[in-house]
Amino acid sequence: MKIEQIYTGCLAHAAYYLESKGEAAIFDPLREVQPYIDRARKDNAKIKYVFETHFHADFVSGHLDLKKKTGADIVFGPTAKPGYEAIIAKDGQIFNVGDYKVKAIHTPGHTMESTTYLLIDENGKEHGIITGDTLFIGDVGRPDLAQHVVEDLTQEKLAGHLYDSLRNKIMPLADDLIVYPNHGAGSACGKMMSSETTDTLGHQKKTNYALRADMGKEEFIEALLTGLTTPPGYFPQNVLMNIKGYDSLDMVMDRAQKPLSPEAFEAVANETGALMLDTRDAADFAKGFVPNSINIGLDGNFAQWVGEMIPDVRQEILLITYPDRQEEAITRLSRVGYDHTIGYLKGGFDAWKEAKREYETLNRIAPEELEKAYVSEKPLLIDVRKKSEFDSEHVIGSINIPLNEINQHLAQFPKEKPFVVYCAGGYRSMIAASILKQRGWNNFVDVVGGFDEIKNTGIKTSEYVCPTTML
């Protein structure tokens, strides 16, 4: 069977391309659709269907642009109510793609419309299942997202539906089926996904805690809900965009790709109140940046941290990037629904400096310098890693304020007393540092290399305790 996984690491996202006899189907596409169109063109194939496993929360799907550009039919599972034309499949309905068949299996739980697609080859043999967020490798989809859109869909209700879907629809299928999930490790749609992005269903039945054969419904619900973190604030907004529709990516790009001189950039920022987002590396940002800009580096989990730290997807944004990387930044913002970039600084920060405009810097220290200060000055240390990382191992005497909770805990950052911020490697702590600087904090330093380098000094850390894994 000709099925390809198209994986995008920065979002831990997997789309799928299926082709037979000149007909193709795309499953759960990302916002930028040209790569899928090019892939089908390479096979001289016409994209017949765009299959959606559910209304996604962590990204804006490309289904509408694919339909517009190729004429493909959009397919959702039972109970879906999109605000645009689409096929709403019946449970068990079969779609033909060349000599292949795609069978819709309604598997509510992650969301009520969640649907798994069973792939059947030209000989009638069942090959694999495209599971969306119903079943991951090593995990299953979190059941608490839909309640942020539909209030009476509690996480307990959805977890119960997911238990039934897994036991009645997925687990009875053949062990040799290949599982093709929508996400891998790093996605916020589950809590302990494997770094592997495919597996056999039989192996998952043996190793995935949620598929344990003797697990009762109450035990399953408790296991599934234990340890869930608060989902990023942009998730419900992305769901609504996927349900109601959105501007085409072409329109978003046209609106965003406006080069602005330093003078024009500053004027637009003052007139609009747009957020100035600097996507350069932490080290370069610290050496100099446009006043009041914040840093979220493009060479990291950019889209996810934009979604965590910028609460409104409708926020107007002005970009500061390395030369010729503005299109990449705009595209990656649009993947998570931030469609309102209104321009970028032409020539990047170097142009700002060359124009003799005022800029700011951030103080950073090497771990060796911190080691000396730790002994003599005993500074306040603030660790902005996740609570699970902090609980596993941290500098003794430090306090934990996870980056995604920083806005709720600004009062814990002293303005008079000096302090130190760090994360694992420096990416997240620079986001935190830029936000603090923007809000008026000045008496702090960031640690180059973060906790990964601090551990190599003589600074005392708590003993590492292996995080418990739910069995």
TrEMBL record:
<dbReference type="GO" id="GO:0006749">
    <property type="term" value="P:glutathione metabolic process"/>
</dbReference>
<dbReference type="InterPro" id="IPR001279">
    <property type="entry name" value="Metallo-B-lactamas"/>
</dbReference>
<dbReference type="GO" id="GO:0050313">
    <property type="term" value="F:sulfur dioxygenase activity"/>
</dbReference>
<dbReference type="Pfam" id="PF00753">
    <property type="entry name" value="Lactamase_B"/>
</dbReference>
<feature type="domain" description="Rhodanese">
    <location>
        <begin position="375"/>
        <end position="463"/>
    </location>
</feature>
<dbReference type="GO" id="GO:0070813">
    <property type="term" value="P:hydrogen sulfide metabolic process"/>
</dbReference>
<dbReference type="InterPro" id="IPR044528">
    <property type="entry name" value="POD-like_MBL-fold"/>
</dbReference>
<keyword id="KW-0479">Metal-binding</keyword>
<dbReference type="Pfam" id="PF00581">
    <property type="entry name" value="Rhodanese"/>
</dbReference>
<dbReference type="InterPro" id="IPR036873">
    <property type="entry name" value="Rhodanese-like_dom_sf"/>
</dbReference>
<dbReference type="InterPro" id="IPR036866">
    <property type="entry name" value="RibonucZ/Hydroxyglut_hydro"/>
</dbReference>
<dbReference type="GO" id="GO:0046872">
    <property type="term" value="F:metal ion binding"/>
</dbReference>
<dbReference type="InterPro" id="IPR001763">
    <property type="entry name" value="Rhodanese-like_dom"/>
</dbReference>
<protein>
    <submittedName>
        <fullName>Glyoxylase, beta-lactamase superfamily II</fullName>
    </submittedName>
</protein>
<dbReference type="InterPro" id="IPR051682">
    <property type="entry name" value="Mito_Persulfide_Diox"/>
</dbReference>
<feature type="domain" description="Rhodanese">
    <location>
        <begin position="270"/>
        <end position="361"/>
    </location>
</feature>
